[in-house]
Specification:
Order of helices and strands: HHEHEHEHEHEHEEHEHEHEHEEHEEEEE
Largest sheet: 8 strands, mixed
Strand content: 15-25%
Radius of gyration: 22 Å
Number of helices: 12
CATH class of the largest domain: Alpha Beta
CATH topology of the largest domain: TIM Barrel
Bound molecules: pyridoxal-5'-phosphate
């Protein structure tokens, strides 16, 4: 595990200033708003982006933000201003990124099922790179680019068969996952790519999974990449870019102590382990670690009900606003923002949706909680708002920003 406790006092102070204090200071303002809503702390987002930029400075590294983690326009603008590029997984994401001013030269587009129209969108926009997941896809990109008299930049997504030791649904780099091209097939695919006239092979792409909290899978990934690059170098093939994907995890258990992900430790793994060739760029595609901690889902307690075995705190936010707990059984820290009580109660915090999986937390300790209290579900900035749905004909969650 990372040493989360190693966080500097300085960063902790920033968080306490931004989170606890800020929410409480703004409570009056927040209390008057309709719930549920996402509350984004732009100061923390900036602090996170500054940390990343500090870590990569002086290295041939570029970070692309995976906008599927959170495509909120204000968030995207903030990220674009920091100089970070965009990692995209659909045609609409390409359009959204262009719309907020991300430069096409700083865009990469991944996904196992890119449609012709989406490929056209990418080629017409002139994005830097398509991360290609199969030979069929490469052929289609080549054809579409040829029709437009262009050459599309591509990287081959390699399935490195590394277990990221994360949740089954967010492990992407083993042979039983649908992603990428098997290593055994890679030589042939590289050769084929080099023979096509309307694609330009820029490099290799990897992405092992999400919410990766161990550094070991990344160390293995570096070794794997070194071996592959050596192999191709011997054949006289050098790549201008290698994309190591994203996946760095955040501390969902204790976000107050660790508001900024362990970027130093993460980038150090690559600085130490990856043999970068002259003129080569290393691309990182971080999503969750950039936005998770800057967002909280603020909700109001609708009812508190008790039966013989349980106490249920029923919120006006549900799995339609934040799906992660229902989808992956993931846990978020939940705090009562308004209760002054020193008495702790054990309760299940649930949403109003007609699904038994609509539970934010089981046996959660909260201060004595009543109808009308405001509750914050922390670390909800990534895969929260972007996964919201209108199931039960609910409205999509609103959002507000604090600094
Ligand atoms: C989702 C995704 C990412 C970002 O993953 P995080 O865990 O949010 O950092 C990066 N690359 C690809 C190809 C992805 O699909």
């Amino acid at each position: 595990m990372f040493n989360f406790a190693k966080k500097t006092q300085e960063t902790q102070n920033i968080y306490f200033k931004t989170m606890a204090l800020k929410y409480h200071k703004k409570l009056e303002e927040l209390s008057s708003l309709d719930t549920p809503f996402y509350c984004y702390d732009l100061a923390l987002l900036r602090e996170t982006l500054n940390t990343i930029n500090k870590e990569i400075k002086g290295f041939p590294y570029a970070v692309h933000y995976a906008i599927k983690a959170n495509g909120n326009r204000t968030i995207l603008e903030e990220i674009r201003r920091s100089g970070v590029g965009a990692d995209l997984v659909s045609g609409n994401e390409i359009k959204a990124a262009l719309d907020v001013g991300f430069k096409p030269e700083k865009m990469a587009y991944a996904g196992v099922g890119k449609t012709d129209r989406e490929i056209e969108t990418g080629i017409d926009a002139g994005i830097y790179c398509f991360n290609v997941e199969s030979v069929e896809e490469m052929d289609v990109i080549n054809e579409i680019a040829a029709r437009r008299g262009k050459a599309a930049g591509i990287a081959l997504r390699v399935n490195p068969n590394i277990d990221a030791h994360t949740h089954r649904y967010i492990t992407t780099g083993t042979s039983s996952d649908k992603f990428g091209i098997d290593k055994q097939a890679l030589d042939d695919v590289v050769e084929k790519a080099r023979s096509l006239s309307n694609v330009r092979l820029l490099g290799l792409h990897f992405h092992i999974g999400s919410q990766v909290t161990l550094m070991e899978p990344y160390e293995l990934l570096c070794k794997e990449i070194n071996t592959l690059l050596d192999h191709f170098e011997k054949k006289g093939i050098n790549f201008e870019m290698v994309d190591v994907g994203g996946g760095l995890g955040v501390d969902y258990e204790n976000p107050e102590a660790n508001p900024v992900a362990r970027f130093e430790e993460y980038f150090n793994v690559f600085k130490r382990g990856l043999k970068v060739r002259p003129g080569q760029m290393v691309h990182f595609e971080l999503g969750r670690s950039i936005v998770a901690q800057c967002g909280a889902l603020i909700s109001r307690v609708v009812f508190v009900k008790e039966n013989a075995v349980k106490k249920f705190v029923i919120l006006d936010a549900g799995m339609t606003d934040l799906m992660r707990p229902a989808l992956y059984g993931s846990k978020h820290k939940i705090v009562n923002l308004t209760s002054q009580s020193t008495r702790q109660v054990t309760c299940d915090v649930v949403g109003p949706i007609c699904e038994s999986s609509d539970v934010f937390g089981r046996d959660v300790q909260l201060p004595f909680t009543r109808r009308g209290d405001l509750v914050a579900i922390l670390s909800a900035g990534a895969y929260g708002e972007s996964m919201a749905s209108r199931y039960n004909m609910r409205s999509l969650p609103q959002c507000h920003f604090i600094e």
